[in-house]
Amino acid sequence: MIELIERGGYWGIAALMFIENVFPPIPSEVIMGLGGIAVARGTMSFWPLLLVGTLGSTAGNYVWFLLGDRLGYRRLEPLVQRWGRWLTLRWSDVEKATAFFQSHGQWIVFALRFSPFLRTMISLPAGLAHMKHWKFLVFTFAGAAVWNAVLIVGGHWLADYLETVNHVIGPVIVGVVVLAVGGWLWRVARWKEG
């Protein structure tokens, strides 16, 4: 897994972080954590990795923001009703997130970048509320940069112990990815409109 990340290089990280934010279930914790291990191994550098990972994350979140901003409530609702199963997104979730965004203000876009479940979800209500584009991009970039830095440092720290747990780390990473994909498939299979 680490070698795949290293072969993909910085552009591969940016692409994976973009995809992770547009279409779950690849967790950013795995992508940037493996990037941190690559930093520890000397095949990547911290600052370029942080920059491309954050740019990919910001671009992926911007897709959801633009959907909300351009389509608005009336045109977005039928899309969510039709494709929500595959995105594991209900219209009621969008309405709750929008109310949450409106009651907590624009700083919530920054704060929720640290939440595993809500960091992408908040982009849609921010777009529906027509938050200024530059503010959304700045808050998203700043929050994603902090989160990605933590993940890189965590991966770097994990690399120090990699030699002693090398026989375990590969299966653990594969297990995390399988659990994430399995969780998404479980939600799709048990999906109920609501």
Instruction: Compute the number of structural domains.
Output: 1
Span from first to last CA? 38 Å
Strand content: under 5%
| Biggest β-sheet description | none
Number of strands: 0
Which regions have little confidence, pLDDT < 50, spanning 5+ residues?
Answer: none
Order of helices and strands: HHHHHHHH
**Rg on CA atoms, Å:** 17 Å
Tally of DSSP helical segments: 8
Shape category: globular
What class would the helix/strand composition place it in?
Answer: mainly alpha
Helix fraction, binned, reads: over 70%
Description of the molecule:
It is a single chain. With 194 residues, the chain is an all-alpha fold. The chain has one domain (2-189). The protein has 8 helices and no strands. The chain has helices spanning 2-22, 28-41, 46-87, 91-104, 107-111, 123-128, 133-160, 162-189. Helix 1 crosses helix 3 (46-87). It is globular, with a radius of gyration of 17 Å. The N and C termini lie far apart (38 Å). The model has no long low-confidence stretch (mean pLDDT 86).
Overview in brief:
By secondary structure, the protein is mainly alpha-helical. The protein has helices spanning 2-22, 28-41, 46-87, 91-104, 107-111, 123-128, 133-160, 162-189.
